[in-house]
Write a structure and sequence with these properties.
Elements lengths: L47 H21 L9 H37 L21 H13 L7 H11 L6 H22 L6
Helix pairs in contact: 1-2
Length: about 200
């Protein structure tokens, strides 16, 4: 007798068999050898999708509970909190990127198809903003160290990056040049005041 038959990826079973024909007393035409999973008539196959969905929901719930309860029991370390926030940020950013990817794939081409007067070689892409901004202290220390070591040259883009982190207004090229000119004049004035040769 066959044993250990389960409803899984190997549920299909190929069993070659002849049929009962006219040469026997049983002329039903049924297979001489057949196999069936016995059970109550109301039994149904197990829905694997529900099991997977339940485990996914429990994983998400556990992660959110870890983030929400972080620091309430005065246990754990700063490194653990950083790792937890990084995991949550990565999950949210991945979700947002998936939304924008579908918009770039389906929505943008349809918009240009509805406006044939706009002829472009390639479609523009919608880019989501950052879910979380870097730490201002770490960002400031990084820029200071790289600029002092001459590994990075201060530019308008870098300054606007800092202004974005501080949530202040961006500078234009004209405003940046005006500020640089004013700073140069202040330095020249301070140099003249401290130069002993120019003192009366």
């Amino acid at each position: 007798a066959a044993k250990n038959l389960k409803t899984d990826k190997d549920v299909a079973l190929k069993l070659p068999s002849d049929r009962w024909g006219s040469d026997s007393a049983d002329n039903s035409g049924e297979y001489k050898y057949d196999i069936q999973a016995l059970g109550r008539p109301q039994d149904r196959p197990v829905d694997i999708n529900q099991t997977i969905e339940r485990h996914d929901k429990r994983a998400v719930t556990s992660m959110l509970a870890y983030v929400l309860l972080m620091g309430q029991q005065q246990v754990g370390t700063y490194a653990q909190s950083v790792v937890g926030m990084d995991l949550l940020t990565a999950a949210v950013e991945s979700y947002v990127e998936g939304i924008y990817e579908r918009r770039n794939r389906f929505l943008v081409p349809r918009i240009f198809a509805m406006n044939p007067s706009f002829r472009v070689k390639s479609y523009p892409r919608l880019v989501p903003g950052r879910v979380s901004l870097p730490s201002l202290g770490e960002l400031g220390s990084f820029i200071r160290d790289t600029v002092s070591s001459k590994a990075l040259t201060p530019t308008l883009d870098i300054e606007n990056l800092l202004r974005d982190a501080l949530k202040t207004v961006r500078l234009s090229d004209e405003e940046r040049e005006s500020e640089q000119e004013q700073a140069r004049r202040r330095e020249e004035a301070e140099a003249r005041q401290t130069d002993p040769e120019e003192m009366p």
